[in-house]
Known about the structure:
The chain is an alpha+beta fold. About 40% of the residues lie in helices and about 30% in strands. The protein has 6 helices and 7 strands. Helix 3 runs antiparallel to helix 4 and helix 4 packs antiparallel against helix 5. The longest helix is centred in the middle third of the chain and has 25 residues. The relative contact order is 0.19.
Amino acid sequence: MAVRLAPPDREVSRLEPTDIAASVFLPYVTRPALEMSATAGIDQGDAPLCAAIEGSMVFGDVSGFTKMSERLARHGKIGAEEVADGINHCFEQLLDVSYQCSGSLLKFGGDALLLLFPSGNHQLCAIRAAVAMRAALREAQNDPLGAGRLNLRMSVGIHSGVVNLFMVGTSHRELLISGPAASETVRM
Length: 188
């Protein structure tokens, strides 16, 4: 069963009152997964949901957290809290930039994130987001920590094409991303 996602200009923050139940999941479930589930409805049972979306994907791999963790570990509990705060702050800034450019988070993977830009001008949106995320990361390095500045870098891969999304599972639903465009993005 193919599912068409909501138009790309629809923002999750603009959910209708009937979507209040879905809004509870916003901090924990990606926008495409929510839209796929809402479009299919609850009567689908255990049937997998799928979508083929033309768009651009951005894979951003942040490096430098290990060295930061090692430096801050010397400060004990306070250092551990600063590591968590630094990582959270970094990814909040990266995601804010992505959302401003019409992107959606698909997955976190360690210190990397995978984003989808499904809008009509997805190539330009993805490129703008990647450049702006690198600038945000440079700016985040000015935030003071107990063990000095953040020294983070980000490698970025961008690729455009058809992205295949699958919601699979029964008691637990998982969003799987596949297809040549997804593979090429991560390879880059």
